Amino acid sequence: MKQENFNKIGDAFYVLCRLSIGLFFFLTGFNKLFHPVFQGYMLKTITSLGFSNPQFMAHFVAANEMVWGLLLLIGLFTRFSSLALIVIILVALVTKDIHTIPTELIPIDPKIGTHPIEGYTWLTYFFYLPQVLYLMLLGLFALYGYKALGIDHLLKKKKNLYK
Question: Do the beta carbons of residue 67 and residue 32 sit within 8 Å?
Answer without folding.
Answer: no
